[in-house]
Amino acid sequence: MRALGRPSTTVPLILSLILVPLMVVLAFWWTGDDVDQGFSQKIFYLHVPVALTSYAAFGYGAFCAAMYLWRRDPEWDLRSYVGVHSGTIFGTLVLLTGPIWAKASWGVWWNWGDRQINVFLILFLYYCAYFMLRFSLDEGERRRSASAVYALLGVGLIPLSFLAVRIAETLIHPTVFTSSGAAMPNTFLVTFLVGLAGMLSLMALLMAVELRGKRTAMRVLELQRAARGEDA
Amino acid sequence: MTLRDAVPYVAAAYLAVWVVILLYVAIIGRKLGRLERQLDELEGRGGEPRP
Q1: Model pTM score
Q2: B13, A97: Cβ pair inside 8 Å?
Q3: Thinking of the domain A9-224, which architecture would CATH place it in?
Q4: Is there a contact between A100 and B16 if contact means CB atoms under 8 Å apart?
Q5: Which candidate from A93, A217, A224 shows the least CB-CB separation from B20?
Q6: Strand-pair partners of A34
Q7: A-chain residues near B45 (CB < 8 A)
Q8: For chain A, which residues make up each domain, given as ranges?
Q9: Dist. CA A35–CA A228, nearest whole Å
Q10: Angle CA(B26)–CA(A27)–CA(A48) in degrees, nearest 5?
Q11: Whole-number mean pLDDT of chain B?
């Protein structure tokens, strides 16, 4: 794993500290209120970037799982785990901010008729079960392989969740990004893109910190075993 | 929805994100602290002869 290098925390930390507060400033002091939703539309700049970031984290976890199955390097397994874990954290944020926005916009906390949010919930629960599978098996090759296959299988839900709103007949979950461009003013789009870049930076930072922690934990375990006179 | 009605929802959404991220950072911080203590113990043990 050491051959893959240590992910930097400095760059994502600096970017997060600049972009996330900048998104908040732009959202509240630069963009105007949405004609349809009014002030509650400000949640869009947080909710949608967080949702896209969770897809990116799950996608990264699945990519690393595929790399593990190909290369059999435990470092890819560790990265896959960290990716899925980050995706779950950002997924939690989606499931917290989504219902709040739904209540403000639609008048209900959850709409079981909306395919996108239901597919996202399935995706989230699927990857929550990843941890149950992973920690039900003893550490070793079997656990790494089973986790990798599971993480990889779930990746199919990502495009399904992303496209569900487009194939849905209901118009309750609006589509603002279409093949003809973004159906929103430029100020909204810029703020959204800043928010997305900020959340992706935050994801990279959290993943790098967690990866370092996991590597240190593995090193401590090896040293403890060596100190007890066991094979590392 | 009026501005007055929307403010609690917007505030709750932004607050929820920061609370979850701060909780996550606190958990990671605690874990790293525990690892540092374990490393300190191992370093202390390194100087002693093994039984």
Answers
A1: 0.85
A2: yes
A3: Up-down Bundle (1.20)
A4: yes
A5: A93
A6: A38
A7: 227
A8: 9-224
A9: 67
A10: 65
A11: 83
